[in-house]
Amino acid sequence: MKVREGLMLFLLFIILLVPPIIVIIAEVSQDNSYSDIKKYPLAKNSGPIRFHLIGDFGDLEAPKTNNSEPVELVSQTMENQAKQRPISFIISAGDNVYPHSASNFDQTLFKLMYKTFDIQQLKGKPWFAVLGNHDCVVDSEFEINADELYPMWNMPTHYYNFSINIGNEKLVGLTFLDGCILLGNDQKKIDEQYQWLKQVLSDQENDSNTIWKIVTVHMPMWSPGEYHGDNEVLKLYLYPILFQYNVDLVLTGHEHLMAHYVSLNVNGKPQTYEPLPSQNYSCTSDEIVFYNDASDWIQGEAMHEVVQGAGGRELYKVCPEKVTSMADLLYAWSNYGFTEIYVDTEKIHIYYFVAGNELPSYTVRIFTSS
């Protein structure tokens, strides 16, 4: 009897497993746009880059907005903007799949890659992703191995880096971290990743051709969100490393909203650690803009942090007073959207787009001092 039950379960597993495999193979084999996608496909790049940042988007069961899944509204806005300004790739700040899964044949990831983002201007664009806390709950390895089925997917290991030539042999260094490890309980793995990060950033700092440094990690150091707020562990241990090696831009998600922080460089010294006070904060779903609708900076004046967790999961309210002296909040909005980032040898432009809008809701520009 037990043998028969075991056989029935095995057959059921095969029945459920085979269709998505066949569909994926058919998708890839019938569409030539996937054939040229390789890991690090930007190795031959020699000019400015433009890419989209999205986070916390892997939820196809979030409450609908205007009769559409929020992530579909975001992807369509990404498509519309990419028609005007073509992009080179997409970065995911994590929480790529909800609910928790441990299968390469996850139906959510399949629908996202081959339906939601399988539209003209985004189709075939390489993705560079990091793991979020929801990606790590069961087994994070399936996303690392997902490129076997999704050729646009790039996550070669838990943390990785590469550089892109943006013109005149000048480089932007891109570094991707595993926040699950950094906030986990395995001290050996934590130390190993921090040592690796120091070496990567040191190499970039000592390379005169590397003029921009961008780091992606799921959890933000600073956040105005009602649900999470600042991450004290990363403020204590990650921030000093990023400051030491003059990182220009940190890309994050986790908090389901959009926000921009600057942590000022005062006379070459890092900000003193200050924990976020534990108190009741007033929170809102309205747009929060301090100063102006655009903000201009000179490279080295501040470290910039983008919080982009508004890709599709249910939104969190913004608490504008949820700040410390370590970083200033320039902009925040509890609304679905994404961030567009342009990089060349003289500047970085950061645009925050709300789903459905044609114009950016906020812009930050960083210029080299030369």
Automatic annotation (TrEMBL):
InterPro entries: Calcineurin-like_PHP (IPR004843), Metallo-depent_PP-like (IPR029052), Metallophosphoesterase_PAP (IPR051558). Residues 50-257 form the Calcineurin-like phosphoesterase domain. Residues 1-26 form the signal peptide. It comes from the Eukaryota. Keywords: Hydrolase, Signal. PANTHER family: TARTRATE-RESISTANT ACID PHOSPHATASE TYPE 5 (PTHR10161:SF14). This is Calcineurin-like phosphoesterase domain-containing protein. It comes from Stentor coeruleus.
